[in-house]
Automatic annotation (TrEMBL):
Subcellular location: Cytoplasm
Phylogenetic lineage: Bacteria, Pseudomonadati, Pseudomonadota, Gammaproteobacteria, Oceanospirillales
NCBIfam families xref list: dapA (TIGR00674)
Family to which this protein belongs: Belongs to the DapA family.
Keyword Cytoplasm: yes
Subunit structure: Homotetramer; dimer of dimers.
Provenance organism: Oceanospirillum multiglobuliferum
One of the GO BP terms on file: diaminopimelate biosynthetic process
Alphabetized PANTHER family for the sequence: 4-HYDROXY-2-OXOGLUTARATE ALDOLASE, MITOCHONDRIAL, DIHYDRODIPICOLINATE SYNTHASE
Annotated function: Catalyzes the condensation of (S)-aspartate-beta-semialdehyde [(S)-ASA] and pyruvate to 4-hydroxy-tetrahydrodipicolinate (HTPA).
Enzyme Commission number(s) from the entry: 4.3.3.7
Matching Pfam families: DHDPS
UniProt-listed SMART domains: DHDPS (SM01130)
Keywords annotated in UniProt: Amino-acid biosynthesis, Cytoplasm, Diaminopimelate biosynthesis, Lyase, Lysine biosynthesis, Schiff base
Descriptive protein name: 4-hydroxy-tetrahydrodipicolinate synthase
Amino acid sequence: MIKGSIVALVTPMTTSGEIDWEALHRLVEFHLENGTDAIVAAGTTGEPTTMSFDEHFDVIRKVVEQVNGRIPVIAGTGANSTSEAVELTKYAKKVGADYCLSVTPYYNKPTQEGLYQHFKAVAEASDLPVILYNVPGRTAVDLHNETVVRLSKLDNIIAIKDATGDLERGKELMDRLEGSGFLLFSGDDLTAADFILLGGNGNISVTANVAPRQMSELCAAALSGDATTAHQINTRVMSLHRSLFVESNPIPVKWALHEMGMIETGIRLPLTVLSPQYHATVRQALQHAGIIG
């Protein structure tokens, strides 16, 4: 069973916007060496909306090949076109991804029935296990708990990433799905420790990009029921949770990784490099977490 700290991996790019394959290799090794439990390749933090299909495919394939079964790889295969989501999911299965992460269709604003039919189509297109992803703050559509429960009854839909940050809502879903084997992951670093302590299975994390060891230890403590340790670690990285969202994700986290010497500053329009007014904020958060001197 997949659990623990799962990184929503950035896609490193050169200053001209080309994918930096050497840096991607370094990032994957960084996570393998620092306790990350699984990697999301080409998820929304990885900027797939500005990639060509070939680039999207290549990121998934290269991460799968490099990881080589050491930890699970979750392929980002979401799209606001159901046919595109199906195509991406089929490809992820073909190259050996272990799971796929499928975000709610953005901008379209489908009904709950539309969401059900969308994810049903994705699940039926391949036997790759599907993790639903609900992030209404970015997509302008909310996957209701009732629809999640309905989708959980489909054989190939095995989990959800809940990025609402609403612990009461998350706990309600946990209670409704107790004993079903359906997995629940936080997608909100600020509340992830408490989400896991309430019964969640882990965290799909932006912060883990820069603090993989800390987030791995935090999730392990929370999974074991050690609230004291989980909250102590969370306090140390809390400024990171906050500062990595001073501008739209993944702008701050890519700048933080550049500050750590891991990647160049490349990012694709319409996103831009972190505004200078926030450099000190992010740098101080990295220092407070003990990541840089």
